[in-house]
Design a protein that fits this description.
heterodimer; A: Rossmann fold; OB fold (Dihydrolipoamide Acetyltransferase, E2P); elongated; B: 70% helix; binds adenosine-5'-diphosphate; binds magnesium ion
């Protein structure tokens, strides 16, 4: 086991820059998740860590060793691939023992360690089968087994669950987390699924367009998103965004009320972020009436969609979100709201302290008073 | 969607008809070999000889060094296929996996090479072989056949390697293989069906050659390949078609046997199960 240090790694394919300076320090035994939309460079960064792709510039360290120029096999890491990449011509036992065999481990010792790993992953009864005789879930376990049997310094996993059906994905998610608890091996896990990231990670690295957007633990990621991208990416449904501008009296119109937002004097335009779950039925700090245009009841909770006043429409604000909703339509996630019907007026409220504020020009969050350094 | 009985019947009819068309020449070859010479020009033709001449095979073995010719053909084919496979495995793998400057044009150049008719190359090859003193040697046709086979097998193997997920050799490299180690320990075993099909194709190309053998081998009949030998059985005035047909069957047999032996590799899809 070892720490991992990525220092200013850049990667270009021809003129196309895929990674624009990646910095990260992973502590020994940490479980770090890279998350971001498809094509943002997650796999590329993982391949550079594994030695399967050379970095254009920058340095990678595993433990105290500079591994930037080492071959994959000399880095003492194990990788789990999205399509599992099991060797089809070998049995499960041979698949799991392949890495040990390549390192010249004596045969008896390979057998012992394969048996041990197989027991851990509950695949002992499959050892003589070939990959094509296994179900998707079993292949996934064998792929994990092939990684753990080597007892490497670190695990690198590239979307290992995305070929499984939804139910199995949840089971395997818990199982990988438990495996990490037990083995304590430093793990870097790539996914495009923010729920996987939130549930599994010690720390999350959110990426977009080859740039790290924020590095934080899941709780901080949710409570203090650094910018509009992170705010919209984390959470389900995603954060609602409202546009507003300073009036003559210095206040801002939000959902029909005039609020004194805590922003620096110089800021005249603000994007207000509002989490769907922070809208509550009944009166409260900032109370307003809504007329639902669509209600999705899920039993214990309901998603209530409604339109906000025209002045708060985001359309002109630079298109920070694009989840397909019409401009100005936002969603509330109401718990125990009783029956909610389309078109019937409903009174809801928000605690103004829970609003997030962003600078529309930069997309960066405007820190709350307590966090401000000026 | 399930086929109706009528659709099934039509499908079977089509399969039987196609098979019949394909099998007919072979059937005709067999009965030609077994017929008495005077039955061959009968009208209407007879579809099974009244007294099959089974002795014809023994006769041609006695009259001609058939086994020697078959041996020469085998030697040429095995030599040419061996050289071709070594070259085209490496070339096909490189074309499939590495993006090199000019790699694509090189690939296209190989592709055009296979569109040139073999006879076009006979003269230049003759010149080359005469210079290096290979005329009359078995090496001349081994090398000539290799030049014929390599463009085909390179492209066939490139296509096959393209279907194998890259993650397979990436996994092997993380497991400690060098790039060449990954090729030999993982990619080639997984490609067994592709290798078998490709080798068989090359074998048939070499086995069916006439022009190169005719040009490069000497007049001494102990050097001839089977194809070359068989044409000498056609005389200027008389041709014994029964004997020629019998010899043709003997020449076709080895290819058929190899095919039967390799069939399970040719059909098997070994990569199934490496992913998803
Ligand atoms: N070998 C390559 N040549 C050119 N572009 C590539 C290559 N590999 C990846 N890319 C590009 O790099 C970008 C990032 O890819 P990737 O790291 O796989 O994204 P992610 O895993 O986050 O979905 C994509 O736009 C992809 O098209
Ligand atoms: Mg990816």
């Amino acid at each position: 086991m070892a720490s991992i240090s990525i220092q200013n790694v850049r990667k270009s394919y021809g003129a196309l820059e895929i990674l624009k300076g990646f910095n990260l320090d992973v502590a020994d035994g940490e479980f770090v998740v890279f998350v971001g939309p498809s094509g943002c460079g997650k796999s590329t960064m993982l391949k550079i860590l594994a030695g399967l792709e050379p970095a254009t510039s920058g340095m990678v360290k595993i433990g105290d060793r500079d591994v930037t120029d080492l071959a994959p096999g000399d880095r003492d890491i194990a990788m789990v691939f999205q399509n599992y990449a099991l060797y089809p011509h070998l049995t499960v036992a041979q698949n799991m023992g392949f890495g040990l065999k390549m390192r010249g481990t004596p045969r008896e010792q390979i057998a012992v360690r394969v048996a041990e790993a197989a027991k851990t992953l509950d695949v002992s009864h499959l050892l003589d089968r070939r990959p094509k005789q296994l179900s998707g879930g079993q292949r996934q376990r064998v792929a994990l087994g092939r990684a753990i049997v080597r007892e490497p310094q670190a695990f690198l996993m590239d979307e290992p669950l995305s070929n499984l059906d939804a139910k199995l994905r949840v089971t395997m998610r818990a199982e990988i987390a438990a495996l990490h608890q037990r083995l304590g091996v430093t793990t870097i896990y790539v996914t495009h699924d923010q729920i996987e990231a939130m549930t599994m990670a010690n720390r999350i690295v959110i990426m977009n367009n080859g740039l790290v957007q924020q590095i934080a633990d899941p709780d901080t990621m949710f409570r203090k998103p650094a910018n509009l991208f992170v705010a919209g990416f984390i959470g389900s449904p995603g954060m609602n965004f409202l546009r507003t501008s300073r009036h003559a009296d210095g206040r801002f119109a939000v959902l029909g009320e005039m609020l004194a937002l805590k922003v620096p004097e110089s800021v005249d335009d603000v994007i207000v972020g509002l989490r769907p779950e922070h809208i509550e039925p009944g009166k409260g700090g900032l109370t307003f009436e809504i007329r639902p245009t669509l209600v999705e009841g899920l039993g214990s909770e309901s998603y209530v969609y409604f339109d906000v006043p025209e002045v708060n429409h985001l359309a002109a604000a630079g298109g920070a979100t694009d989840d397909g909703r019409p401009p100005g339509r936002i969603v509330a996630r109401l718990m125990n709201a009783g029956p909610v019907r389309v078109g019937e007026t409903l009174t809801v409220s928000v605690d103004p302290d829970r609003l997030h504020l962003f600078d529309p020009a930069t997309g960066q969050a405007i820190p709350k008073e307590a966090d401000r350094s000026w | 969607m399930r086929a109706t009985p009528l659709q099934t019947a039509l499908l079977y009819a089509a399969v039987i008809l196609t098979s019949a068309i394909l099998v007919f020449p072979i059937y005709w070859l067999v009965i030609t070999a077994l017929s008495q010479p005077d039955q061959l020009r009968q009208l209407p033709p007879s579809f099974w000889p009244s007294e099959p001449r089974w002795g014809v095979f023994k006769k041609i073995f006695e009259e001609r060094p058939i086994l020697l010719w078959l041996g020469n053909s085998a030697l040429a084919a095995i030599g040419a296929v061996t050289i071709s496979m070594v070259v085209s495995v490496l070339a096909g793998y490189s074309l499939s996996r590495f993006r090199v400057r000019g790699g694509q044009s090189l690939g296209l150049f190989i592709l055009t090479a296979k569109m040139l008719p073999a006879t076009l190359l006979v003269i230049p090859l003759f010149g080359i072989f005469r210079t290096v003193g290979l005329i009359g040697s078995m090496w001349s046709i081994i090398l000539a056949h290799a030049t014929l086979i390599i463009p085909f097998t390179t492209w066939m193997l490139k296509g096959y390697f393209d279907t194998i997920p890259r993650e397979l050799e990436q996994a092997a490299m993380v497991d400690g293989c060098s790039p060449l180690g990954a090729l030999f320990r993982v990619i080639l075993p997984v490609s067994a069906p592709g290798l078998a099909a490709t080798a068989l194709y090359g074998f048939v190309l070499s086995w069916s050659d006439y022009a190169y053998a005719r040009t490069f081998l000497t007049n001494a009949q102990q050097n001839w390949t089977a194809n070359l030998g068989i044409t000498t059985m056609k005389g200027e005035y008389v041709s014994n078609w029964s004997d020629i047909s019998a010899a043709s069957i003997l020449i076709a047999l080895p290819v058929l046997l190899i095919y039967l032996f390799l069939e399970r590799y040719l059909v098997g899809g070994l990569t199934a199960g490496s992913d998803k």
